[in-house]
Amino acid sequence: MKDNIKNIIFDLGGVILNLDISATTKAFVALADHAEADLEGLKTEPAYLKLETGEYDTRQFCQAVQKHYSRPPADQQVIDAWNTMVLDIPKERLDFLLELKKKYRTFLFSNTNEIHVLHYNAYLKRQYGVNDLQPYFEKLYYSHVMHLAKPDPASFEYLLKDSGLLAGETLFVDDTLANVEAASKMGIRGFHLNPPMKLIDLKGMVL
User: Fold this and answer.
1) Which of 84, 127, 150, 161 is deepest in the core (most CB within 10 A)?
2) Is domain 21-83 annotated with CATH 3.40.50.10310?
3) What is the CATH superfamily name and number for domain 7-18+87-206?
4) What predicted TM-score, i.e. pTM, was given to this entire model?
């Protein structure tokens, strides 16, 4: 894998950041304990996709969720429920990223949103004394800022052009197969970090 690789692009959730998406599902259900709610409608609500591409801001996202409840929860309740999926970032992963940064140009490319970014940045400040993930990468690419999300080929095209990367010299690591396949079609070397494999397991392959 080391041959000809000069750049590595990392996904965030499920690769660097631990996630439990089911926790958010349970949290939204819990908000309906004392009110009627169209939870099936909430599951198919495209609000989170619009949040991740920056089409919705936090307030618009909350409003989209609230319309599914007969007694709408407060904005902060929606935000707290949405953030329950965000868990921790083990220190060994951050240390590994710093090692890689000495050898490769490294980038973060995450389908994320302003709510989660604020939440895990606060976690990083509390836990590790850093304001965000910038110290671990050359540049951060967030879908809600780019207004583009994986697996859209345009998102990969944007990143390659913006940072002046050659696809054939670039490795992309993601836990979602569709994203890896999309990157591979662009000529990027894709690596599917399939659970139970962890980010640190790549150490022998890239160092």
Assistant:
1) 150
2) no
3) HAD superfamily/HAD-like (3.40.50.1000)
4) 0.95
